Structure formats: C-alpha cells, structure tokens
Structure prediction request, 167 residues.
Amino acid sequence: MSIEGRRKGGERKKKVIRGFLDTLEKQHISRNELIRFLHDDRKSITQVPVSLFSCSLSPLQALVKYLKERSLSYLEISRLLGRDERTIWNSFRQAQSKHPSALHPEKSKYSISIVLFRDRSLSILEHLCEHLYEYHGLSYHGIALLLGKDDRTIWTVCKRAERKRNE
Prediction:
C-alpha cells in the first residue's frame, strides 16, 4: 500500500473513532462506564463474531438471538443495545420462529464490539459494514462474501452510512 493510501486510511480511522467518542458522549456513557462494561467478567460478551450476521435472520434478530442464547435477559440486551425491551422480545420471538435451532457462528477473524450498536444513528447492518470497511479495510465484495449478501447491497449500505455520518 502506498504512503498516500496509508495516510487516508489513518484519517478515516480517526474520523470513525471521533464519531464513536461523540456517540458515547451523546448517550451519556462515561469513560469509566465504558471501561467497566468492557471488563465485565460476569457476562464477558463485548465482541460478536461477524459470521453471526451471515444467517437468514435480520442483523437485529441475529444479534438478539445470539445474546439471549448466552443467558442475557431481555432487559440486559435492551440496555446493551439501547433499544426498548419490547423490541428485543419481539426480535427474539421472530428469530425463534425463523431459526428455531441455536445459532453457532463460525470462528471468524473479524469481530465487532456490541457497544457500537448502541448508536442509533446507523442501523446494525450499516455499523457492521462501516466497521469492516473502515477498520479492517475489506472491499465491498469482501464484505458481501463474509455476510452472504449481494455486492450492490453492501455498496448501498456503506454509502448510506457515509451519507448519514456526513449529515
């Protein structure tokens, strides 16, 4: 990769980190709360494998089902994701009817922090695609292969996330 390419990649990462820190501040999440959350040994679920999102469920349904199967309550999941408890219950119920067996995501070298999904300015899929594109430097095609989606869908999702960030 050229020096120019590395510089642009570094600038993109800084922009994403600044956006993340701004989101935490807007959600009234202190630095200490974030650190406590990341080091919570009781549940220790801070990262989810990206392969989780390649199943037939919607990203929210897959995430809720995954967390519920790890013995988190609806209340705990709703607090983690910054969503209403009824939304979590409904997502889990729909996920169970679509995919009654337990989710077993494949081991993946890519994972994403659950904390990012609290930011409601982007959808879960938008966060996921943005993370894979910005932090891991995957191409749209690479993201599409990883998530089992069409390349054009990933391009659209990434562009929508970029547009929302710039508004």
